[in-house]
Amino acid sequence: MVRTRNNGCVEPLAVRGETCGTGLQPVFSPVENRSHNRLTDFATDCRAPRKSFTAARMTILRRRSLESFFEKGYTPLMKFALTRDISPAINQCELTHLDRAPIDLARAREQHDAYCGLLSELAWTVIRLPTSIDLPDSVFVEDTAVVTNEVAILTKPGAASRLAELPPVLDVLANFCEMEFVLPPATLDGGDVLTVGKNVWVGVGDRTNQQGFESLRNYLQPHGYTVRSAQTKGCLHLKTAVNRAASDCLIVNPNWIDPRIFSEWKVIEIDPSEPFAANVLWLGEVTLVSKSYPKSRDRLESHGVLCRTIDMSELAKAEGGLTCCSILFDA
Ligand code: CIR
Could you tell me if the CB of 278 is within 6 A of ligand 1? Predict the structure, then answer.
């Protein structure tokens, strides 16, 4: 259950167990959201009577109808994907392990639009934050926050150039979640945080330091999470090396992380010729896999994982993958 602030009280905003099947794509700007906070207003207005959101499933829901929908008192459980558009300065992005290769901005934007479109098709309500020329890496929004059902933590990205990405992300998330903050000297990138149920692994390395790990652990432990550090070698983030691929399994590049630390889980290894293939995006019913990694997709499918393929080859040149382009949460 994600919670929101309400005049100093904490009110439940969502009840789990139902899904929203809308193709809604609201585009919030932070300023608009602050002055006209329809979702938060709704949360305080519709405590009773609650009707099933699925009972009134809609294929296309525009903003005006969203308001009347809320006014009727439907349970506001929705699956949100917070995304951010690609900066015109993407070619000045941070790079750690790859040599710089020109990124075709128009093509990258087409691929990113397709990513947002696919999330929308799969019933995620996609929030698209605008970007600017000063924020080359802002499309990789995953690194700016860790959102759980109980609390959202604004991170402190390990690359100084990325700190300016934080304020608009805070503005949006604060409408939905109790917020906590990683404070200096701690650094933490969301890409280093893998959550599987109540288990959290934090990659400590270039971008996330020991204090960042401890800070996250301090915020999550009181909510019943087991938070452990994990050692990677040769990759940017923990989630470059391992991700959840289905409800019961992980996909791992064993050259970048020791799979034995996930001994309680079924582990599928990537095809060795596709080192970046572990960055899949598990969406519950289906798992997104990059088009560039067909052999690893075959491996997943042979284990019964239902996959959808998406081309993110331009952002891959910026060391970005599928998880890093969104922050997924229920509200
Ligand atoms: C960076 O180096 O920060 C970006 N060029 C790529 C960040 C990718 N983020 C992620 O995988 N979580």
Answer: no
Contact 195, 222 (CB under 8 A): no
Which band of pLDDT confidence, cut at 50, 70 and 90, is reported for residue 2? very low
List Cα–Cα distances, 165 to 127, 193, 292, 314, in angstroms.
Answer: 16, 18, 28, 21
Domains of the chain are 3-330 (3.75.10.10)
93, 177, 324, 325: the active-site residue: 324
For the CA of 321, the nearest atom of ligand 1: 11
Asked if the model's pLDDT at residue 228 lies above 60, the reply is yes
Question: Which residue(s) pair with 269 in the sheet?
Answer: 252
DSSP run (H or E) holding 209? none
Q: Which residue among the candidates 237, 249, 303, 307 is catalytic per the annotation?
A: 237
Across-strand partners of 229? 202
Which candidate, 258, 225, 261, 245, places its Cα nearest to that of 299?
245
Work out the pLDDT band at 129, boundaries 50, 70, 90. Answer: very high
In tens, the pLDDT along 19-61 reads: 222 333 344 433 333 333 333 332 222 222 222 332 222 223 3
**Among 238, 242, 260, 239, CA closest to 251:** 242
For 110, residues 6+ apart whose C-beta sits below 8 A from its C-beta are none
Active site (annotated) includes residue 36: no
Has this prediction a pTM greater than 0.85?
A: no
Transcribe 37-69 into DSSP letters.
Answer: -HHHHHHHH--SS-B-TGGG--S---HHHHHHH
State the distance from the centre of ligand 1 to the C-alpha of 330, rounded, in angstroms: 24
Alpha-carbon gap, residue 255 to 112, rounded angstroms: 29
